[in-house]
Amino acid sequence: MITSDTLKDKLVFIGGALGWFAIVVQFVLLMQNRVESLTETTIRFFSYFTILTNCLVALYFSVLWYKKPLSLLSRFEKPGFLTATTLYITTVGIVYQLLLRDIWEPTGMQRIVDELLHSIIPTYVFVFWICCENKKDVSWSAIPSWLLYPLCYFIFILLRGNLSGFYPYPFVDVTELGLEKVLNISGFLFLAFAIGAIVFVGFGKSIKT
Predict the structure, then answer these.
(1) Cβ atoms within 10 A of the Cβ of 37, count?
(2) Which of 109, 17, 106 is closest to 57 using CA atoms?
(3) What is the pLDDT of residue 67?
(4) 78 DSSP 8-state letter
(5) Which terminus has fewer CB within 10 Å in the chain: N or C?
(6) DSSP state of 166
(7) How confident is the model at residue 201 (pLDDT cuts 50, 70, 90)?
(8) How far, in Å, CA of 1 to CA of 5, rounded?
């Protein structure tokens, strides 16, 4: 584990800068090409698990860099929070590479942002986790609470999709796939989160820090 505060501060700053840059530029690009209202476009932007999770990553690094006595700081510094965040953003990267990369070919700035959100930042956070998390102190009992985020997300996008007709990802599009198939896929992804959490905790406890 990194013991130099100066080095860790630099890593934290870089992580926050990458996160906010990617999120802000992605939002600007979306707004430039929007066909829906400002409100609807904004809601759809934050309906993507990728965006929500990258926001969590950027916020995590920002709070750590700020170093002021915020209630969030004490929560973010607890062993396990970084592990959960790494689980979420790593899943973003894996799902994108396996299921979504081939469905479109972004160019220009959109491609840069796309790689940041789905490849570079997930890899960066994973390396930061390896270097900085107090892995031995991460508890197995924390895993159920980590799964609330993806569970609530799945419920949200299915409910809102039923009302608006918009589903952020093709593998959860009830209109195209039907509810039963989407529920099966969502269940499989939720199981993947659970397995991933077990792997992270187990792997963390097995390596020397």
Answers:
(1) 9
(2) 17
(3) 73
(4) S
(5) N
(6) -
(7) very high
(8) 11
Helices (H) and strands (E) in the chain, counts: 11, 0
Q: Please identify which residue in the block is written with the tokens 């409100």.
A: 39
Alpha helices per DSSP H over 116-178: 121-132, 143-146, 148-164, 174-177
Torsion (CA) 135, 140, 141, 146 in degrees, nearest 10: 70
Q: How far is CA 202 from CA 34, 85, 93, 131, in A?
A: 44, 16, 20, 16
Q: pLDDT of 17-59, one tens digit each?
A: 999 999 999 999 999 989 899 999 999 999 999 999 999 999 9
Tokens of 59: 């916020």
| Tokens, residue 68 | 């002021």
- In this structure, which amino acid lies at residue 48? Y
Q: What is the pLDDT averaged over residues 136-160? A: 95
pLDDT of residue 73: 66
Nearest-angstrom CA–CA distance, 10 and 98: 32
Percent of the chain with pLDDT over 70: 94
